[in-house]
Amino acid sequence: MFGEEHSSTADSYHLLGFTQHKQGDLSSALQSTQRALDIRRKLFGEENSRTGDCYYSLGVTQHAQGDLYSALQSTQRALDIRLKLLGEEHSSTADSYDLLGVTQRAQVDLSSALQSTQRALDIRRKLFG
To answer: 48: alpha, beta or left, given left = phi > 0 and alpha = psi -120 to 50?
Structure first.
């Protein structure tokens, strides 16, 4: 109805990827999320919150697949977008710091993991007490 290059189509791909991930079909989840990201980048550009959400989801799936290098890149990109658009003290920014820390810990970069996880905690304590 909307075509392949429409924001609603991107939303559907993103939700499909989320569901496929939950079902354990990580390969399909990665493809769906990547498609959503491609559409959103084309429609909204690189510096958009919906594009950042796709990078975050991509990082989650890449981490689950064990592709820690790609997961770190995607998660860092999501964090960069969220910092620029939402600022340092936003719950989505904290989520990105947390996932970054989890990925860094899996890569045995414990110093960086500690810094990222501590930053996520600091934001959440300030926001939620």
So the answer is: beta
Q: What is the model's pTM?
A: 0.93
Give the mean pLDDT of the chain.
Answer: 95
Q: Write down all domains in the chain, each with its CATH number in brackets.
A: 7-128 (1.25.40.10)
Cβ proximity of 101 and 111 under 8 Å? no
Neighbouring C-beta atoms of residue 18, cutoff 10 Å? 17
CB 101 within 8 A of CB 72: no
26 in Cβ contact with 65 (< 8 Å): yes
Q: Helix (H, G, I), strand (E, B), or coil: what is residue 49? A: helix
- Rounded Cα distance between 1 and 66, Å, is 36
Q: How many CB atoms lie within 10 A of CB 13?
A: 22
Q: What are the pLDDT digits (tens) for 35-86?
A: 999 999 999 999 999 999 999 999 999 999 999 999 999 999 999 999 999 9
- CB-based contacts of 17: which residues, under 8 Å, 6+ apart? 28, 29, 30, 31, 32, 33, 36, 57, 61
